[in-house]
Design brief:
The protein is built from 1 helix and 3 strands. The chain has one helix at residues 74-81; strands at residues 2-3, 8-13, 16-22. The longest helix is centred in the C-terminal third of the chain and has 8 residues, at 74-81.
């Protein structure tokens, strides 16, 4: 990230500038570039739309349930750190 002479912040991925935003002054607290969001709500065949937390959902208008994940006690992870099998 670097500040430019024309009062912008440039954000880099390695050597490529991937975003440029003006440095905000006064009461302004946010600057949104809508082109950063282009394509996020499109849906290709078989692709599910994601909710605001990035979780896949079948219905865009209802909150998605949390995905089912295996639950383990923390002791299982501690055992793995010690080289034991779980």
């Amino acid at each position: 990230m670097k500040e430019t002479l024309d009062h912008h912040i440039e954000i880099y991925d390695e050597h490529e500038c991937i975003a440029k935003h003006p440095i905000l002054t006064g009461k302004a607290t946010a600057h949104i570039k809508m082109e950063h969001y282009e394509g996020l709500h499109t849906k290709e065949k078989g692709q599910r739309i994601k909710d605001v937390q990035g979780l896949a959902t079948n219905d865009l208008y209802s909150p998605a349930p949390s995905p089912k994940v295996e639950q383990r006690p923390l002791a299982a992870y501690a055992a793995l750190e010690e080289g034991e099998t779980v």
